[in-house]
């Protein structure tokens, strides 16, 4: 995985690099919006299971309230040069109803199991419908690497 340089990558290379980063990164910026209160953005830990992004937040957090009211979200990996943006719809799972394999994988990655906490948590699953990836201006053209839930190239 390379995070500097301006060599133009083809779509298969962008896809490979994006999948590698999704498996390795820890944090993702989550952008939500409430129909009446507007946008909200927050970083959360995430797990990539090969098909979806899993995150966890307090059940009463702004993020939880927003995705319940408006499930469309945008996710961004935290690098402003090696950009990866994902768009999709959030599916919510209260901590007592999350699929066990997802919760165990999340706990295994971070050494923290929200299900064991006193407060209530909400697991949020996002299957990307669109993914964009680019490194600097030379890669702006062709930055869409997933459209309508299908990887390109």
From TrEMBL:
Chain ranges passing through the membrane: none
Domain of life, per lineage: Bacteria
A Pfam family this chain is assigned to: PNPOx_N
UniProt keyword list: Oxidoreductase
Domain Pyridoxamine 5'-phosphate oxidase N-terminal positions: 24-130
Name under which the protein is recorded: Pyridoxamine 5'-phosphate oxidase family protein
């Amino acid at each position: 995985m390379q995070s500097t340089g301006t060599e133009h990558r083809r779509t298969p290379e962008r896809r490979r690099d994006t999948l590698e980063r999704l498996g390795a990164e820890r944090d993702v910026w989550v952008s939500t919006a409430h129909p009446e209160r507007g946008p909200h953005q927050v970083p959360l830990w995430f797990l990539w299971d090969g098909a979806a992004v899993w995150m966890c937040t307090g059940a009463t957090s702004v993020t939880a309230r927003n995705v319940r009211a408006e499930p469309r979200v945008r996710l961004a990996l935290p690098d402003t040069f090696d950009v990866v943006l994902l768009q999709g719809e959030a599916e919510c799972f209260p901590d007592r109803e999350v699929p066990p394999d997802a919760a165990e994988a999340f706990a295994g990655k971070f050494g923290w199991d929200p299900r064991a906490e006193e407060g209530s948590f909400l697991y949020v699953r996002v299957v990307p419908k669109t993914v964009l990836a680019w490194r600097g201006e030379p890669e702006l053209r062709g930055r869409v690497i997933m459209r309508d839930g299908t990887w390109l190239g």
